[in-house]
Amino acid sequence: MEKRPESRVSADIPVRVWGMDADSKPFFQSATAGSLSSEGAQLSHISHSLKVGEVIGIQYGDKKARFGVVWIKPALIPERYEVGVALLAQQTVPWEDVTSGNKPELVKAPAGSEKRRFTRHKVQFPIQIGFPDNRRSHMHCSSTDIGGRGCYVESLVPLQINSNVIITFWIDSEKISTTAIVRASDPGVGMGIEFTALEGHIQKKLQAYLEKIDQGFASAASQGT
Predict the structure, then answer these.
(1) Tens digits of residue pLDDT in 159-205
(2) Spatial contact of 167 and 181, defined as CB atoms under 8 Å apart
(3) Of the CATH numbers 3.90.1150.10, 3.20.20.140, 2.40.10.220, 3.40.50.10490, which one belongs to the domain with range 125-224?
(4) In terms of pTM, does the model score above 0.85?
(5) Where are the domains of the chain?
């Protein structure tokens, strides 16, 4: 009897990935895993070229496993890749709770809550990181994962957790600034930053702007095929 294709979960989850790249250099980075199943996943936002057949490690939460690279293709963002991975024998996927449906809190908001779940967009979005005391130079960089409540910035030397910063960015011709705090710091990889004073209507405006950018990428991709 032919084996039925296994159903996949479309939820995106944050993971850490490490191994050897196509140039045989070690790498370690944050990424996103989607199209989840008990046998593999699709990785997005990979910034290193990998080889098909290479073995890499993936961590979700406190669980790790080894996977083989089965395919790789360029993403819409320059120097980024999407990678298909398959679980190696004798390994258990780190996201087993997600694929078994035991994690409804990720998608279901508390009853009566006015907070909406803001989609994170994997786009290169220029921002400026400043500091309250003005004694340090501003950092001009690009967020690689951003939504209405925060962003992730790649950096070899990220700021320490709980560092207070001021994030400035532009929405069309409008300059936006907000206080923020570093919630995650991954040496050699980057940092996760939470916006702490971004008003609700600005959050929604940012989300709409990011969705427009995403649609622009999708349109450009369809015209090029």
Answers:
(1) 998 999 999 999 988 999 999 999 887 776 778 888 999 998 999 99
(2) no
(3) 2.40.10.220
(4) no
(5) 13-102, 125-224
